[in-house]
Give the backbone structure.
Amino acid sequence: MHKLAKLSDDKRRRLITDFIDDTCGGFDANADFVDMIRSAMPELPDDPKPHQADAWVELAELTQDPDFRAAVRRMAQYQAAERAQGDITGLHHDLTETVRDSVGRALDAGIAPASAEAASIIDALTVRYAQTFSRADDAGLRQRLLTRLEIAGDPRAERY
């Protein structure tokens, strides 16, 4: 078994706590975001099954990856900047699921990103964002969404 899986609960917890402190500390990141990252810390039983130990090792290695840390730090910084501009709307789990489902269905259907079909999906999602953020569906919102999705689009964050 990998040495990370053999660490004590306290040492495993410290690895994740250090990750959270490094990536979210010093920013006024959304408290719900920080809580979500903190709550993702799994408990490893005293006698873990191989898949449990493997999953924990994967998580521990991910949190030690400098590129992943930088990606999560960018997410926290972006959220802090949004909060500084008055955004108090929260994490938007429903909206995230809608985007994931819509884009997933489009990818599964082989819809080309630059196609008219994709444009109609993007338009529908943009309307949802405009409603959520109480903003007009205009070029400014679309640029803001592009930035937001680029920052949050790291697939490793989903894996975490």
Q: What stands out?
A: The chain has a mean pLDDT of 86. The helical segments are 9-24, 31-39, 50-64, 66-84, 93-108, 116-133, 139-152, 155-159. The first helix runs from residue 9 to 24. The CA atoms of residues 6 and 27 lie 33 Å apart.
